[in-house]
Write a structure and sequence with these properties.
By secondary structure, the protein is α/β, with parallel strands linked by helices. It is built from ten helices and nine strands. It has a six-stranded parallel beta sheet with strand order 3-2-1-4-5-6, with helices on both faces. Helix 1 (about 20-25) links the parallel strand 1 and strand 2. The longest helix has 16 residues, at about 70-85. The chain starts with a strand and ends with a helix.
Length: about 260
């Protein structure tokens, strides 16, 4: 069953260029039954949103800036979120912003049992990221749409500029997660590994590293190995993964016992 989601967008803090891709991404996690964007619509810099809002059925919420230096938009969005929470009409929220001011809101919504998804730019402060169940970078959605539109075009290589490197820290995170779930032979079900990675690091996404799925990302790491096992019905295969070094140690110990 799809989660009913309230999508709340910080219009002052999010570029309008890739709203279509954002809404397609959100649809993967649930049904966006409430879609609102907050900002002072008398300001010229928000004029680009007009056509986009109509195309995506997003309701604009007018919020005047009462005083200089204070973000009234944030306050309006937070108040609305709490009203929606108490209405009990949704199962989760998608907070679209790169602003750390929404950290406490995300934490409070999760305390109330809500699923919280965050979408923002890579500049988003870490406290807001870790306050969400899952956090998606806009740059990933931007790169994906560009590569889909111009796969054979030389501009398609530009997306590589924003792809993160698979650092030793990333490999350590994945390896330790596999070991947390491994059976006696060192194997862990990849689906469980992906879920635990998300809990440990909400912004973990294989697309950050240039891979559409977790399986090819794992396959690219030489210290890990994959085993695809057929189910009893044979319709599809279950993917298991383990750390090669750990497997070698276990094998050595088994031989010593003999």
């Amino acid at each position: 069953m799809d989660l009913k989601l309230a999508v709340l967008i910080d219009g002052d803090n999010i570029p309008s260029a890739h709203v279509k891709e954002m809404m397609e991404e959100i649809a993967k996690y649930g049904n966006p039954t409430i879609k609102r964007i907050y900002g002072d619509w008398t300001k010229p810099h928000l004029s680009k949103w007009k056509t986009i809002l109509l195309e995506n059925a997003i309701t604009p919420i007018q919020q005047y800036g009462y005083t200089t230096g204070k973000n009234a938009t944030d306050s309006a969005m937070i108040i609305d979120a709490m009203d929606i929470l108490y209405s009990e009409k949704v199962d989760g929220f998608c907070l679209v912003s790169s602003d750390s001011d929404f950290t406490r809101l995300a934490t409070r919504l999760r305390e109330a049992g809500m699923q919280v998804f965050g979408i923002g730019e890579k500049k988003t402060p870490n406290p807001f990221i870790v306050a969400c169940d899952k956090f998606i970078y806009i740059e990933i959605l931007k790169d994906q749409s560009q590569s889909d539109a111009s796969a054979s075009n030389e501009n398609s290589t530009a997306s590589k500029n924003t792809v993160d490197n698979i650092t030793p820290q990333v490999i350590k995170l994945i390896s330790s997660t596999i070991l947390d779930l491994a059976d006696d032979d060192g194997w862990a079900f990849l689906g469980d590994v992906g879920s635990l990675l998300q809990k440990k690091q909400p912004n973990f996404d294989s697309r950050n590293f240039g891979f559409q799925k977790l399986t090819p990302l794992i396959s690219s790491i030489k210290t890990l190995e994959i085993d695809k096992r057929e189910t009893t019905k044979g319709r599809f295969k279950l993917v298991y993964v383990r750390v090669k070094e750990n497997a070698a140690i276990k094998s050595k110990k088994a031989k010593q016992k003999k």
